[in-house]
Amino acid sequence: MAFNALLFMQSWFYLDVLLEIVMNKIYRLKWNRSRNCWSVCSELGSRVKGKKSRAVLISAISLYSSLVFADDVIVNQDKTIDFGKENQSIDYRITVTDNANLVINATDTSRPRLTLASGGGLDITGGKVTINGPLNFLLKGTGFLNVSNAGSELYADDLYESNSGMRHDQGYFNVSNGGKIHVKGTSRLTYTQGNVSGEGSQVNAGTFFMGVYGGYGGNQFLSVNNGGEVNAREHISLGYYDQRSDTTLVVSDGGKISAPKISLSTNSELALGAQEGSAAKAAGIIDAEKIEFVWASTSDKKITLNHTDKDATISADIVSGSEGLGYINALNGTTYLTGDNSAFSGKVKIEQNGALGITQNIGTAEINNRGKLHLKADDSMTFANKISGNGTISIDSGTVALIGNNYAFSGYIDVASGAVAVISEDKNIGRADLDVDGKLQINANKDWVFDNDLQGRGIVEINMGNHEFSFDEFAYTDWFQGSLAFQNTTFNLEKNAEFLQRGGITAGQGSQVTVGKGAHSISTLGFSGGTVDFGALTAGAQMTEGTVNVSKTLDLRGEGVIQVSDSDVVRSVSRDIDSALSLTEVDDGNSAIKLVDAQGAEVLGDAGNLQLQDKNGQILSSSAQRDIQQNGQKAAVGTYDYRLTSGVNNDGLYIGYGLTQLDLHATDSDALVLSSNGKSENAADLSAKITGSGDLAFSSQKGQTVSLSNKDNDYTGVTDLRSGTLLLNNDNVLGNTHELRLAAETELDMNGHSQTVGTLNGSADSLLSLNGGSLTVTNGGTSTGSLTGSGELNIQGGTLDIAGDNSNLTANVNIANSANVLVSHAQGLGSANVENNGTLALNNSAEKRAAASVNYTLGGNLTNNGTLMTGMSGQQAGNVLVVKGNYHGNNGQLVMNTVLNGDDSVTDKLVVEGDTSGTTAVTVNNAGGTGAKTLNGIELIHVDGKSEGEFVQAGRIVAGAYDYTLARGQGANSGNWYLTSGSDSPELQPEPDPMPNPEPNPNPEPNPNPTPTPGPDLNVDNDLRPEAGSYIANLAAANTMFTTRLHERLGNTYYTDMVTGEQKQTTMWMRHEGGHNKWRDGSGQLKTQSNRYVLQLGGDVAQWSQNGSDSWHVGVMAGYGNSDSKTISSRTGYRAKASVNGYSTGLYATWYADDESRNGAYLDSWAQYSWFDNTVKGDDLQSESYKSKGFTASLEAGYKHKLAEFNGSQGTRNEWYVQPQAQVT
């Protein structure tokens, strides 16, 4: 029934009439200010004021008129209403507050519409509204939906804020300050200006859609900001294929949208920070697996990056669909796209204030870069996109190959330190200016004329496939301070020297550098297997026609070839050897012809690995050998020849004649000794090659240094540093030495170089400084001195005992799977980062095993791939390893010692001040504990940081009658790991806050009946070992196996004599017995079952009577028995097996009062000696065997009394007896 009524009166007249309609609906006549008239309306139209007890007739929302005007409504108590089938329109505010629950049932499948028209709205500020069923929810004009404040929530099956095909003005949608909307299915927002803002504010839906069906309606705009969230379980969809309005979703200021998929269709914009045309704001979070551009339009759907952040990230895969294309516009801020964007085929625009970072790819997109494009690879990236514009391409990390056609790019390409850019054609870098602080690789198979501007301090690595590289006359390189590293490339220095005034050259493998005529100045010159041709020599002038002046660094440590044209001039160099010079000086003697002038520059190495050739590639040689005598013994053989050297003054590159090789012969105390003799630099450096099987010793005054610089050294003897300092000036200068010895007060400085030795033996007060280098030890040793510095310490085999204080060690220590490292000093590992693939043991050297516990400190990180031992069997418990950094277990093992008793047990401990990760198996050795109940547990592993690592018990941990279990703590202690003999993880109680000093009470009242303070719970349910049941079973079997009674051997045995055929009687007897038992212990944890078998054999050896009627019997007996048992613990699931095998011998004696009838009294006694072999084997434990033995005796007494006799039906005689009996064993 519908009811409409209007009553016009003057505004001062007040009428309040209640009309009851036939259908029991209650209406009220109210003055409507907006229409200046009286309206008949439902009770809903009344504004409820005052007390909560005044009910609001919520059911009146189901209006029976199609249009009703009313005042605002406050809903402040629970109510359920039925919406009905017809559309409803509200132009007044409905406020849900005071924790009220409003339920609207809209179950009609026709999907009726509730319109919040201008002046109307649903305002949920402190309650919950639940909409059941399909209901179109339309905002019109200034109509609004507001859900604000924590606890305010709107629930709906579907929320369709739309009316397809109709034109409406926009309303306003707001979720703020912790309000929430929950939609089971789809939430559609159209014609709406919306806002989701504030921590805890959420819109949660299956699918979240913004757009307009049918092409009608105004624009849609939704801002998600300040911690607000829009979460879709399936999909966020923006725009519709034929819509004419704009759809914009902005995520800013820490707001968040999340969905597996986000799609952008016609006229849609997903903006991070702010929409295009607005001022940039802080970025929010876009959390999606895929962002897809759909439909065929290209310029009307876009991702806008317009924010103020420096490192915003979108991790979704961005795809264009089959025809979706799309735009990515970076307007402000820096955004990194970290997903797989290989299916994106749209366009990218980077404006002047914008920056876009790519970590994988950006599909086939064309990029207009007026800002900054960051290419950041974890490992390698191939970037084939076409780039235009005048911005910057920054190669931030990894190796990035630019292979696209970038002729239209005229900006800058920056290669950061540590990064590598690779190009193969000049179009890859277009007309860009290059700033190389990392490495630029140019790989081509043709001549290359480089015409780009170049600067930076990095390396340009050039491989032309045996073609020529040169600079264009218009190239600008004045600020290039790096190096051209040539491989398989020809280069003419004479033609290009002007481009390297601040740069340099490294002649790499396969390269040919021609110096040309004249003197050419460059910054650096180095060698790495290439050839430098200095041309013709001038006779008498002691110089070549082409020379090089180096202003910064001349590196002569590498290998390579020096070519000259006139060998006769070389042969004119004096070959006289000054016997007064030391071996470290004679290698630089007769430095006659200068090729490179490096006065004022740093000269590294002494050219011992450079080869001198003529123009035809033939080695220039005129060698001679001499024995080197020392203390009357031939210690070595020296070879002298033409060679290259840095000169006596270490100021260039020279051709001379001097020592080129030392062949070591003598060993031990007769070994060749090198000494600085008070000299320094070149005069104390040996650049000749050292070979042979003899030893090499060093003996200089304290503070004086001898250095080696030839990387081709291959001697195999001992390197014996007896005094002074040994400096490594190149890799592998100690050759293949099988032992490195450092005496007290000596120092070995690795100087950043790499070296492999067999055994390392460092005495106390010696110093081995890695100094950025890498030392590899293949056969262990003992380091009692100090290890210091950064770099790498690699232990590849054997056992290395580190017994010195290495507090200043900051290197990476790598222990191979075949190596063992024993650390017996608290600071033995210093601040190293340790990667353990073998065995790392603490306090385990033989002389330390009985020592007190030690607190060890590892200042860096520890990665355990092998075995970490804080204690070994036989070693005292109590060692503590403190890891200052992070700990990562890569399925490694941790072995610890613990005195397995109660909570206060002494134990090894691992303390990690950083974070833990990965998985580690933990083995615990019992260091003398007898087992006890635990309450809180024994703390083994303590973690101060994030405790994400898992420590898994490996094998049984047992002591006494108890099984211990390794478990993570609970509550505040959940980051730590404990041993417990109970069933639950420990939950330690926090220490109480200290109480303030109490007021003194000088006269306390006596309490005659104080309440007793409860003690500890002694009934904690602990885990018992199944072996306890096995020992009990063995003991019970041994004690009872040979126990026998008189009746078990009673009776006469008859047999037939084989000779006479007579029937005879014997007193021999045999007993067989088997049995099966099951039992549980008192705690109910242990269940045991056993099987036994006994064989006994005996017979009388004497019989007599004292009165003619009684009889005495004395006999001997022997036996064999065995018992097998199994015990299982219902708590831990562990099992134990036991067995006992035994033998016995003994005597027995029996007296019968009446020998004939055996009635009346009798006495029986026996005594036996038994011995047993016992075994117990528990799960994951070694079998335990033990022996037992003992005497047993028995006294038995009884009385046999005849009760009655009778004849049976067949005439048989039957007798009834009773025989009381007692036995003590």
From TrEMBL:
Write out the biased-composition intervals (Pro residues). 989-1015
**Residue stretches making up the Autotransporter domain:** 1061-1225
Q: List where Polar residues composition bias occurs.
A: 975-984
Lineage, broadest ranks? Bacteria, Pseudomonadati, Pseudomonadota, Gammaproteobacteria, Enterobacterales
Q: Which PANTHER family match?
A: ANTIGEN 43-RELATED, AUTOTRANSPORTER
| Top-level taxonomic group | Bacteria
NCBIfam families referenced in this protein's UniProt entry, alphabetically: autotrans_barl
Q: Which organism is it from?
A: Escherichia coli 97.0246
Instruction: Give the UniProt keywords, A-Z.
Output: Virulence
Pfam families in the cross-refs: AC_1, Autotransporter, ESPR
What SUPFAM superfamilies does the record point to?
A: Autotransporter (SSF103515), Pectin lyase-like (SSF51126)
Q: What is this protein called?
A: Outer membrane autotransporter barrel domain protein
* CC per GO annotation: outer membrane
